From TrEMBL:
Record EC number: 4.2.1.51
Keyword Amino-acid biosynthesis: yes
UniProt xrefs under Gene3D superfamilies: 3.30.70.260, Periplasmic binding protein-like II
Keywords: Amino-acid biosynthesis, Aromatic amino acid biosynthesis, Lyase, Phenylalanine biosynthesis
Top-level class of the enzyme under EC nomenclature: lyase
InterPro entries in alphabetical order: ACT-like_dom_sf, ACT_dom, Preph_deHydtase
UniProt-recorded name of the protein: prephenate dehydratase
UniProt pathway annotation: Amino-acid biosynthesis; L-phenylalanine biosynthesis; phenylpyruvate from prephenate: step 1/1
PANTHER family, per the entry: PREPHENATE DEHYDRATASE P PROTEIN (PTHR21022), PREPHENATE DEHYDRATASE-RELATED (PTHR21022:SF19)
Natural source organism: Flaviaesturariibacter amylovorans
Length: 273
């Protein structure tokens, strides 16, 4: 029986592409309107897992999702690095000269600004790239196009009139795989932790020294204000290693240096899948 995974967005979205990349093409999808609904669906056991975007190589971190992760009680069991390829989609038979307007999510339109500015098309912002593609198909538009991915074109019977219209070739989004329980990962090469430090000189530096001395690569460090305090912070860190032994030793070394220390997940580095 295929697994059911919840995603933010609509059928044909990049979240669904990432889910297929990780779980296989037969994975079932439960679309949600918001990331909070994604987390709730996993917490309540209505799905096998959730998939949540956490950062983009151009736009940076999705900060509210770090807050959701911290409060969720869920575990990171994997990750997906997905190249974001945007295409100009049309209904069959529509040509460039037929197009009067282009529909898509505002970030997608921005990602393709150099291409879109070459023509005097009206740009129409929507909630989602895949939803734009679906509406294009449903209304049989002959003078409109959508910016979306190849899966949306496949699902809604659209043609890729111009492929790869995004400005930046190296555009990746990182997605986290979330479960209610931690998953055994004997070949794990990455971990995500959250820790707090005392509000005193050198407290964070001492933590970073321990990470370096353990031979572990700090691939991500994101700070957040600690609610109810003045100028105190907690930190989300992604750590990369060749085996889990140095990481386990690092946790013991960090406990006396931190005010809190939570492990969100130990999993396989998605860039090495």
């Amino acid at each position: 029986m295929a697994q059911i995974v919840t995603i933010q967005g609509f059928e044909g979205s990049f979240h669904q592409v990432a889910a297929r990349q990780y779980f296989g093409s037969e994975v079932g999808i439960l679309p949600c309107a918001t990331f909070r609904e994604v987390v709730t669906a996993v917490q309540e056991g209505r799905v096998d897992a959730g998939l949540m975007a956490i950062e983009n190589s151009i736009a940076g971190s999705i900060l509210p999702n770090y807050g959701l992760l911290q409060r969720s009680g869920l575990y990171i069991t994997g990750e997906v690095y997905l190249p974001i390829r945007q295409h100009l989609l049309v209904n069959p038979g529509v040509t460039l000269d037929d197009i009067r307007e282009v529909h898509s999510h505002p970030i997608a339109l921005q990602q393709c600004s150099e291409f879109l500015q070459q023509r005097h098309w009206k740009l129409v912002e929507t909630e989602d790239t895949a939803l734009s593609a679906r509406r294009l198909h449903q209304h049989h538009h002959r003078h409109a196009a959508a910016v979306a991915g190849a899966l949306a074109a496949e699902l809604f019977g659209l043609e890729i009139l111009v492929p790869d219209i995004h400005t930046e070739a190296q555009n990746y989004t990182r997605f986290l795989v979330l479960h209610r329980e931690p998953a055994p990962a004997p070949a794990a090469t990455k971990a995500s932790i959250c820790f707090g430090t005392r509000h005193e000189r050198g407290s964070l530096a001492r933590v970073l020294v321990q990470i370096a001395e353990a031979g572990i690569n700090l691939s991500k460090l994101q700070s957040f204000p600690l609610p109810g305090t003045e100028w105190e912070y907690f930190f989300h860190a992604d750590l990369e290693f060749d085996s889990t032994a140095p990481f386990e030793g690092l946790l013991d070394a960090l406990k006396p240096l931190t005010t809190k220390l939570d492990v969100y997940g130990v999993y396989v580095n998605g860039r090495k899948r």
